[in-house]
Structure formats: structure tokens, C-alpha cells
Amino acid sequence: MIDEIQVRLQESLSTSALQQGMLYPRHVRRAADKVARDFFCLYATSTTDLIANQTSYEFPIRPFRFDRLRVDQGNGVITPIAGISPDAADSKFPNWTGQPPVLQGVPQFYVDAGSDTLALVPTPNYSVQDGIYTDGYFGVDQWWDMEDDCPLNEAYDEIIIVGALIRRCSEMMGTDPIYAVKKKDAQDPHNEDGYPALSRRHYRERIGRSEATRNAIPSRGKRLGAWSGWTVWGA
């Protein structure tokens, strides 16, 4: 993608452009993130280890529409568990916060206090690698290793390229006026290859024409910001 943008901006053979292009990976990630959020096109799962006698866990990196949390019961059977408030947990499971944990077994609920952490109740009395699964619509962030393929479907490559090109032009237009011209062209609503036209087409394909897709996008959800050993997989 970066090579393609450099070709379109006629800077691929320029040493100075390569030196100035340190923000290119960020531009591409941000462009992909906007696409993922605008079109809800990255429904994925984030996993982390379930650890015996550990009650509290950090939420995964930024699912902007959180759908459900699942837990391995210790025998390979993975089931969804419901969220409850801290007050409900106090009422249903007295002393659940005790240290060491006084209530142990297969987790039945997760306690959501509206922060970056969750608690499992009962506290697991067993360990499973990648035993906690968080499902939802994800944005794109540092977890995308730029050496790997784009996590979004290849159908979105062009709009990501144009979005990153616009960010590159914003970065460079203060030093070279040609970037301002190219940015204006890429943002021109009458340009069939520009960002507005691409966005309209993708919206119609992804959301506007499909009742099933509209119903599948959850209205609830929140942005979660932690990262501690979680991995993301499954587009």
C-alpha cells in the first residue's frame, strides 16, 4: 500500500521522500481504522489466557462495538457468559472480591465496572491458554503488524490507499504545494476515484443494501482501550 501511494504521488524514487515518510505506517493504520469503524467490516475475536486464582483481567485492545465474552470451561467447551454490575455481583456472590478468592470454579459472569478491567465470577480454579474470548467489531491499531496482510478484506484496499494518501498529503503540503492539489483531488466529491465516492459505494455494499447486515451491527457497545497479552484474530 505504501509503495502504491508513493507511485501515485510520484515520490517512489525519491530518497528524500523515503526519509520523510516515517509516518506512512501510521497513515495506513489510521486509514484502515476509519474504514473498519465506518463500515463495521472487522468482526473479530480477541483472546487471552485464563489463569487459575486470577479474578481480574484487562479488556482487549479497542473493540469499538463489544458484543460478547466467552470462556473455556476447562474442557474445550467455550460458552458465552453474561455481564453484571458490581452491585449485582455483591448481591449474588457475597465476598466474591475476597483475597485469596473465596468463590472459585467455572466462571458464570463477568463483572463490568465500566473501566478497562473485568472480573470473572466465580474466580477460575483452572488455567487455559487463550481461554477468554472477546467478540466484537474492531478498529485497527498497533496490533496490525505491517509485515502482515491487511486485516480487512482486500475489497477495501483502494479506499485505505486513498485515505492514507490524503493523510500523506496533509503531512507534506506545507513543504510542497503539489500535495495540496493532490489532496484536494482525492477529497473531491465529484471524483469517482476519490474518497467520498469510494465511501458511498462501500456504504451501500456493506450496510445500505443489506437488512441482515444492518441487524447484525449491535447498537450497544463501548470502546475499550487496554492491551495486555491479548491477540486478535478472525475477520
Radius of gyration, in Å, reads 22 Å
Number of domains: 2
Poorly predicted regions? 219-228
Structural class: alpha+beta
Beta-strand portion reads 15-25%
Main beta sheet strand tally, sense and closure: 8 strands, mixed
Order of adjacent strands in the largest pleated sheet? 2-7-6-4-3-9-1-10
In total, the number of strands is 10
Mean pLDDT level: 84
Helix content: 25-40%
Total DSSP helices: 8
Q: What is the terminal-to-terminal distance?
A: 19 Å
Any idea what the shape is?
elongated
Succession of helices and strands: HHHEEEEHEEEEEHHHHE
Can you walk me through this structure?
- It is a single chain.
- It contains eight helices and ten strands.
- The chain has 235 residues and is an alpha+beta fold.
- It has two domains: 85 residues, no CATH class; 107 residues.
- α1 crosses α5, α3 crosses α5 and α5 runs antiparallel to α6.
- The two termini are 19 Å apart.
- About 4% of the residues have low confidence.
Looking at this protein, list some descriptive labels:
about 240 residues, alpha+beta, 2 domains, 8-stranded mixed sheet, two-stranded parallel sheet, about 25% strand, elongated
Could you give a quick summary of the protein structure above?
By secondary structure, this protein is an alpha+beta fold.
Helix and strand arrangement:
Blueprint: H1 2-8, H2 15-20, H3 24-39, E1 43-50, E2 56-58, E3 63-72, E4 78-84, H4 86-92, E5 104-105, E6 109-112, E7 117-121, E8 123-124, E9 128-138, H5 157-172, H6 177-186, H7 195-208, H8 211-216, E10 231-233
Parallel strand pairs: 4-6, 5-8
Antiparallel strand pairs: 1-9, 1-10, 2-7, 3-4, 3-9, 6-7
Helix pairs in contact: 1-5, 3-5, 5-6
